[in-house]
Design goal:
alpha+beta; Chloramphenicol Acetyltransferase; 2 domains; five-stranded antiparallel beta sheet
């Protein structure tokens, strides 16, 4: 979505802040009404679902009005700041050269990260990385790229993937539905109302010319429209109201989509890691620093996915296809103060345990400081979540959709174990594997866990093979 700014410079519209970003939360104003600002001076700090963004002024002038309060959600393309025009504006500052505008009006992004599991995260120290969003044009460049056209396309509706799926199933052209949701969003109730009125849109063609107006019967579960008349929540005894904002809101949307789309099932196992812990201690003595079990488990996961490639995949629901991946792009769920994040280690199957540990440490630090690169927050093919860093044995982790599987690690515990008829004191690691049953059969999930168990219980096989 490109945003065309007014030619008279009286109003500054909130520009695109990233690929697919339609709104952002206003964190803090850096200017006030009546203030004279220079070109490229920071006007506001805003937060999208994945980044902290500083929005600069595209030109010099005097602020007349600020549109929006701190904590509010601002929509891309809506007025963010109004400037004085006419004689007062001319006296405020001289116009800046046009060439300089393109170079300077750039959005500086501090990318958020998803920190790895806490025990691994505590081991790491890494520098922060600050830069512009990868692959994004500066604000001034976006202003200049879009040309006026009398044949501009119809507006694209703002709606969640779940609502878009409901529209496809009901045969409704979502771009023609009048929105009633916050920020101009189309809700499930809006789509249902349009369907009841017979407002069906034309089926659209994808880039390959194939009709995607409806999802094939049986491939994905049918969505049930959300009732528009839900009863209000009971406010009795409430001591704090916390609105869904930024990362937390995006997490809620992603988990809701995963539960409503993927058909979850979970298999669990306990793995004897007594010998692996001894091998880890050897590594730690050589390196001169502590290592957690996480990089060894991740290394075993990569080995296991080579043998069970059906788990190293994502689902293309609109295209009705399963996309198996070659390289293992391993996600590592991280608990941060901003919410759960999942940074991705690309080509993790090419890395040794020590290299995986370094990657986890770097990403963990990036998640804490919210400076991780945007491309490191997407494109995963399998995810590991270290639930045990906080306690607990088994979990039923929710799949990081559109991936088809996620491994949850519990807290390792000492146990009295038996091998060959003899008792011994050992340590077991509880693991839980959640899979999308549309793609992965129960036998395949159990077989993957058996492979993982075999590798982790025999460090020589894991590290030598």
């Amino acid at each position: 979505m490109s945003v065309k700014q007014p030619a008279d410079k009286s109003q500054f519209l909130l520009p695109d802040l990233g690929e697919g970003v339609h709104e952002a939360e206003l964190i803090r104003w850096r200017v006030k009404p009546g203030e004279m600002v220079k070109e490229h001076q920071i006007l506001a700090e805003m937060e999208t679902d994945k980044a902290l963004v500083e929005v600069p002024s595209p030109w010099a002038g005097t602020i007349r009005e600020l549109h929006g309060k701190e904590g509010e959600i601002c929509i891309v393309g809506k007025v963010l700041v109004s400037y004085e025009v006419g004689a007062r504006a001319a006296a405020a500052s001289a116009p800046a050269p046009r060439a300089a505008a393109k170079e300077a009006a750039r959005v500086e992004v501090r990318e958020p990260a998803r920190a790895p599991a806490k025990d691994a995260a505590k081991e790491e120290d890494a520098g922060t990385v600050v830069g512009t969003m990868s692959g994004q044009l500066s604000i001034a460049e976006r202003f200049g790229r879009r040309q006026e056209s009398a044949a501009a396309p119809a507006r694209k509706a703002l709606a969640t993937p779940a609502v878009r799926r409901i529209a496809r199933e009901l045969g409704v052209d979502i771009n023609r539905v009048a929105p009633t949701g916050r920020g101009g969003r189309v809700t499930a109730g809006d789509v249902q109302s349009a369907a009841d009125r017979g407002g069906r849109g034309d089926a659209r063609q994808d880039a390959r010319g194939r009709d995607r107006g409806a999802v094939a019967e049986g491939f994905s579960p049918k969505s049930v429209p959300i009732p528009a008349d839900r009863p209000p929540a009971d406010a009795d005894g409430v001591v704090e109201r916390i609105p869904f904002r930024g990362v937390r809101r995006k997490i809620a949307q992603a988990l809701d989509l995963s539960i409503k789309t993927a058909v979850h099932f979970t298999v669990v196992e306990e793995i004897d890691v007594t010998d692996l812990l001894a091998k880890r201690s050897e590594y730690a003595r050589v390196l001169g620093r502590k290592l957690s079990l996480l990089p060894f488990v991740m290394f075993a996961v990569c080995r296991g996915l080579r043998k069970h490639p059906e788990l190293n995949a994502v689902v293309d629901d609109p295209g009705e296809a399963i996309l198996r991946k070659g390289p293992v792009n391993l996600g590592c769920a991280v608990d941060t103060e901003h919410g759960l994040m999942v940074p991705v280690i690309r080509d993790a199957d090419r890395l040794a345990p020590v290299e995986l540990s370094e990657a986890v440490r770097r990403l963990a630090e990036g998640c804490r400081s919210r400076t991780v690169a945007r491309e490191e927050l997407m494109g995963g093919s399998f995810t590991v979540s270290n639930v045990g860093s906080h306690g607990g044995m088994f979990a039923t982790p929710i799949i990081n959709y559109p991936e088809v599987a996620i491994l949850g690690l519990g807290r390792s515990r000492e146990r009295v174990l038996v091998k060959g008829g003899r008792f011994y004191a050992g340590t077991v690691l509880p693991v839980s594997l959640s899979c999308d049953h549309r793609v992965v059969d129960g036998a395949a999930g159990a077989s993957f866990l058996a492979t993982l168990q075999s590798l982790l219980e025999d460090p020589e096989k894991l590290l030598g093979g």
